[in-house]
Amino acid sequence: MIADIIVGYNHSRMAQVALEQALDIAQQADARIQLVNVAEQAEPDSEANLLLENGTDVLAYVDAPGDEEPQSEVIVPQFLEEARLRCQDAHVACSLFRFQGEASYWLRQRARLAQLVIVGRHNTHENSPRRLVGRTVQRLLVNPPVPVMVTGNQYRELAGGLLLYSPTLVGGRALNLGATLAGLLNASLDVVVAARDRHSGQKMVAEARFAARPYHLDGSYTYMPGSAAEVVLKAGMARHYDFVVVPSPPSPWWAPGICAQVKTALGIPDTVLLAVP
How many domains does the chain have? Predict the structure, then answer.
């Protein structure tokens, strides 16, 4: 069940893409969106400072009655007001939180109260052909606290997806969320497993098919030889998918990093990634 969706939001175009993808899901799941904006600096001696430091819900603060003067003097930036109105037009409940500091840290903090985080690949000033994703997304994908969706460069209707299944707890959670998302969006979902040989591949395919029975998925079940990263790349490039769901097992404490299959899936062009821990 998806009840709360965190959206990392700033003034960039890719943040707007993330919001549009979140609205599609929130409308179908009847979920609430929490817009999280993180500022590196706040104006000195302003009420906004208090909001940023404490992470107060800005909209609730603005609407709260004051003893002497209305709190509406707290200025909500134009781009955040436009995002709020976009949620309102889509009939999706919305809360707005502002923080000061490092974006990935505050997104992780708010994620404890949500089931999904959606972020754009880059900030506008970070967009570089050498980077698949920006610094915030890189840090967020290292042992993510909840499932993280990384949007593409443009909005996409999520009509068809690919899911990498593995016979693990993380693989089971990925199948559960991927199937739930496909059901909400009325999307097809192809399931692929990475196997060393034909026997183990057929066994895992049968397991995935059995686990997905309650969701009545429209899609195929196949296995491919190779590692998880190799199979994701091979399957993802063989057909044009709108989204890819990948298990994201925890990395060891002595060598933290983005797991290989997630990093590979980020390289599939024009595709939304959903990494499930």
Answer: 2
pTM (2 decimals)?
Answer: 0.88
Main-chain dihedrals φ then ψ at residue 154, nearest 5 degrees: -135, 160
- Measured CA to CA, the distance from residue 235 to residue 212 in angstroms comes to 19
Q: What is the mean pLDDT of each run of 10 residues along the chain (277 residues)?
A: 94 94 97 91 51 56 43 69 94 92 92 94 58 87 96 94 96 97 96 93 95 94 95 94 96 88 93 97
Phi, psi of 119 (to 5 degrees): -135, 155
Rounded CA-CA distance 8/36 in Å is 5
Cα dist from 2 to 114, 178, 207, whole Å: 8, 12, 25
Domain boundaries, position 260: 160-276
Does residue 110 sit in the same domain as residue 196? no
* CATH code for the domain of 202: 3.40.50.620
Contact (Cβ atoms closer than 8 angstroms) between residue 178 and residue 208: no
